[in-house]
Design goal:
CATH superfamily of the largest domain: Medium-chain alcohol dehydrogenases, catalytic domain
Structural class: alpha/beta
Largest sheet: 7 strands, mixed
CATH class of the largest domain: Alpha Beta
Bound molecules: NADPH dihydro-nicotinamide-adenine-dinucleotide phosphate
Number of domains: 2
Order of helices and strands: EEEHEEEEHEHEHEHEHEHEHEHE
Radius of gyration: 20 Å
Number of helices: 9
Length: 338
């Protein structure tokens, strides 16, 4: 059936210098190739856009290869198997895989994960039950473990990682959970929906002053999604022996020149702060544990999730530009197909 099928895909049209725009993407239709043995044809129904994709638009070495100009982008997606030449992944399966940014994907069966959608919607595997949820869990259980009674600070707290992290911190026994986000709507959601005790608005004033007021005794754990002023503020507020999970530095992703480190880094020495980077790929072995715990928390209501949905493949570039600019609450997703 796939011989007559065409599929749309989004390609990188050029590399940005600084803030990317729609001109850096192009929408192209291509015939879908015939399946080889061991391959499946997936009709993508959801795809993920994530801040790390901005780094892949540059031609610089990183933990994932750069996107290539004139070639389709890739990233997390879920969809339905509509044709199969694999004994292990039959037609009708719902799968997650890494060939997003297109309506249809031809994927090796070894490169897809069949997901259970009896209790959760398929797109959950791109958010709370996917890498962003696991990032929050690994950060707060292993990289900067939360102990009972801790004061925990999370930045980009209304986003995909942050909104899960606040609730996980609480479930792990934190005493006080502080989050920062941009604007009054998001900061309200931090305390009403995402389990934070205190919400800071980084657009309303210097984050260091707000954090000092919110945590006069200091913080024990910081999950850093932002870098820059937030990391500086957290070092300033750190208690002796504080633990920091360096998860992301979105404030610098569009920088056009090298960004200086926190000017107060020396405080980390005498406070004996642990600053530890993490890549979620190093924690994939903990996916089964996370999915079991998160599945329980989702079903008993102790983990609330949010998503911001953009419709249509043609809107995927706008969704990526939006996530870099704060357009999302919870996980930013693109709905594909009907
Ligand atoms: P989010 O859903 O949190 O979206 C990004 C958010 O960052 C925006 O919504 C915006 O929220 C905030 N933001 C953008 N610019 C700034 C700024 N200058 N200062 C403060 N906040 C800003 O994305 P994710 O949850 O997917 O990712 C969060 C972070 O975690 C990113 O840095 C990402 O790269 C990183 N990450 C790292 C992983 C790893 O393995 N190390 C895995 C997954 C994610 P607001 O409107 O509130 O400012």
């Amino acid at each position: 059936m796939q011989n007559n099928l065409t599929s749309r895909e989004i390609r990188l049209a050029g590399r940005p210098h600084g803030v990317p725009g729609p001109q850096h993407f192009e929408l192209v239709s291509e015939p879908v190739p015939a399946l080889a043995d061991g391959q499946v044809l997936v009709r993508n129904t959801w795809m993920s856009v994530d801040p790390y994709m901005r780094g892949r638009m540059d031609d610089t070495p990183s933990y994932l290869p750069p996107f290539q100009v004139g070639v389709a982008l890739d990233g997390g997606a879920v969809g339905e198997v509509v044709d199969s030449r694999s004994d292990i992944v039959p037609v009708g399966s719902t799968v997650s895989h890494f060939l997003g940014w297109r309506d249809h994907a031809v994927v090796d069966a070894a490169g897809v994960q069949v997901v259970d959608v009896t209790a959760v919607p398929p797109q959950a595997y791109l958010g709370p039950l996917g890498t962003t949820g696991l990032t929050a869990y690994a950060a707060l259980t292993e990289v900067a473990p939360v102990r009972a009674g801790d004061t925990v600070f999370v930045s980009a707290a209304a986003g995909a990682v942050g909104s899960v992290a606040g609730q996980v911190a609480r479930l792990l026994g934190a005493g006080t959970v502080i989050g920062s986000a941009g604007g009054p709507d998001k900061t309200k959601r931090l305390t009403t929906d995402f389990g934070f005790d205190v919400a800071l608005d980084h657009r309303a004033g210097p984050i260091a002053e707000q954090l000092t007021r919110a945590a006069p005794q200091g913080i024990d754990v910081y999950l850093d999604n932002v870098g820059g002023d937030h990391l500086t503020a957290a070092i300033g507020a750190a208690r002796p022996g504080a633990r920091f999970a360096l998860v992301g530095a979105i404030s610098s992703y569009n920088a056009t020149r090298p960004v200086s480190g926190p000017e107060n880094l020396f405080e980390a020495y005498w406070k004996e702060v642990t600053l530890r980077g993490m890549l979620v790929t190093s924690y994939f072995h903990r996916f089964p544990e996370w999915i079991e715990r998160a599945g329980g928390w989702l079903s008993d209501g102790s983990l609330q999730t949010a998503e911001t949905v953009v419709h249509g493949l043609e809107q995927a570039p706008a969704a990526l530009l939006g996530v870099l600019d704060g357009a999302n609450t919870g996980k930013m997703l693109v709905r594909l197909g009907d």
